[in-house]
């Protein structure tokens, strides 16, 4: 598919500074340029959410506007920002956007007053909330554009990072924003009574991708769907009317899903309108009753509410319920009668953990069995609901074979079997899919089988929570369509910006890893195994051209038992005659897994990607550790994003836990004590020559931490950065200060490989100004609060400025242009006020100087002017930005359209600059080598508008 390049572009209203008496526009530009430079530098070596939001391989349609009003910054805030070191600017921004509750929010970002991110691409602020109304402000900070080829036609895919689109098959897929809004406890309905759109921008000439039929992991690619009538309509799509779902109950609160549409598309005109800010007024209809909402357990669910409800803080202040006495029953175990004794060690542990527990034997609930499994399931659910209403339980554990404690079965259209699962048991209040309790199950026919699983759980829950292996995450993916699809999902998890650290390891199927490597990684100890790909009842199928069928493979991980996220089809289909992959890993007495999240049926691909990402956000951003609550909040987030329609709903219903639902995953726990950094150095090179803006030299550093870096893979709790500063200066803060004597700039380094007992990291130094610099690594074992500084001969003897790396940074190179050519067409016709079709030009670059990283610095424009004039000589030419299309063998192709206002005959051409418009190379039909000629310009005929 076509490559796209984009210079780093920010949606920052920090360029919206408060006007001052002296040069307000220049001060705004200075603020914008400072933030831009800091972020470009940081993002050269980082792939986190901040960078994906401001500098991506996609094009961002929302860019900073230096002419915007300057109402969001005070003069002192501007002064502080301009005097700040880049490392402080970027790190505080990164922490703020990560969701870290105690992170300071940078004064130069307008979303500092916003409550929290509801996805990468927008922010939500609660303007007001009372018993009858909520007023919300939605600020759009990123809208992505990417070229895609479908049905032989190039479309543009629009997306708001972290959210969905309209879902009418064949019609334009236009991004929407979905909010889960907390409602008063006696609300029975809600409606949007006001919607105001501000800062509306228009973008022309976009053929938006049609929404395609969703597919399960097992489905072949569906036929391309294109609704010609939808693309011919002259009015807006969608119509701009908000969608409000019925009020739902989520244990302690009521909630309503509201969908708003900051983007509207006019298909016939190929035009979008983007509202960068919306104000939404929601009115609640009250019926005077407090049905279904309970008081117990609010504090233990608070992190989940804070993750999913956009107005949680305001809601809790107004109506937040509290538990009656804090001593309610929290855990219900329903056990097949012969297995009651085998489960007791686990239930006694729950009591020791101050989780009050209730035991129930299945024979008491089902004295007589039905021939209909759903009828028995309904009786079990009725019992669970009665205990929930009486005691406010938070967890339910089902113990026994699935034939005895059946899952709920629900027929769905176009599926070869019903969707089967335990999630239905979790939904106890209201007619909705927001879960009130967390459900898990242990399967086994004999007391010995259950006792073995219980022993593993008890060992895990009483073991060392701070053990290094528990901090590791193993990401495993199927090879299909790599590096897209499954690998892309895993990489988005690995490179995410989180509030808590995690040590990620990868085994991607397309990289020729083996089943033995996967076994070895598990045997060496990891806290989470996350698989994303194809699955069957018994295996992760052909992930590397082989099936990973754990039941037939040996294991030696002993007590280092991971939690498994199997985000794939069928691996938990317990109804088969044999043993599923989930059972094989859980039932193994020595080793295996301590808990397994799997699906009972073929699952839907795109919701699976989002579900997986939401799991890690819940762990690492919100610290939600009990596995049952973790999957519940991921389900709620996915339902909010995708809506209560088929794709997400079926996925939510089919995923379930084998394991104790209250078991806490330990990935992301801060160290019990700061990790002492034993030694580190700046390894090589000791000196380098590189180029501004497009560094090409890898710099390596090593770190040793006793007991951590000796193990394979990246050590947990270790945070490594590379920095640079003026030549000969020290990066170490001066006594009594947090800053060094001279300004140093820092960016994250990435784990590279195991180097004996050391871990090796790499980074590149991105500098914008040519000159001489010193560089070094630094390492933290306490999350970045303190650092050990690493010079060339190591940290044992302290840091010496003359033992730092030395960098000579040359100016950014300019690629040699061999020809700039107006390639097609030679003539064009349009009517006044209407756009032409695409006009194209090429920029051929000398292969000896071509560097694809320099492509973002190429600026292309298309222009038109009066007959008889050459563009460099006439001020009457009108110019607009052209779009990058592709690169092939050093030749860049661009496209643009013209919209002349008046009828007549005009000339048109393209022009290109590599220094942001200081100098230009002009393109006419026979190329730029022989200069511009009037008869080689394009001819544009503009007819009067009808």
List the helices and strands and how they pair.
Blueprint: H1 24-43, H2 49-54, E1 59-60, H3 75-83, H4 86-97, E2 116-117, E3 122-129, E4 133-140, E5 144-150, E6 153-159, E7 177-183, E8 187-203, H5 228-232, E9 243-244, E10 248-250, E11 253-260, E12 263-266, E13 271-286, H6 298-308, H7 312-319, E14 331-335, H8 340-352, E15 357-361, H9 362-365, H10 373-391, E16 395-399, E17 408-410, E18 419-421, H11 423-426, E19 438-442, H12 447-462, E20 472-477, H13 485-494, E21 503-508, H14 515-524, E22 528-532, E23 563-567, H15 581-587, E24 595-599, H16 605-620, H17 627-642, H18 646-654, E25 655-658, E26 679-684, E27 687-691, E28 699-704, E29 719-726, E30 745-748, E31 750-755, E32 758-763, E33 771-780, E34 788-790, E35 805-810, E36 817-824, E37 827-831, E38 839-845, E39 859-866, E40 878-881, E41 883-888, E42 891-896, E43 904-913, E44 921-923, E45 938-943
Parallel strand pairs: 14-15, 14-16, 16-19, 20-21, 20-22, 22-23, 23-24, 27-35, 37-45
Antiparallel strand pairs: 1-5, 2-3, 3-4, 4-13, 5-6, 7-11, 8-13, 9-11, 10-11, 12-13, 17-18, 24-25, 26-28, 28-32, 29-30, 29-33, 31-32, 33-34, 33-35, 36-38, 38-42, 39-40, 39-43, 41-42, 43-44, 43-45
Helix pairs in contact: 1-4, 6-17, 8-12, 13-16, 16-17, 17-18
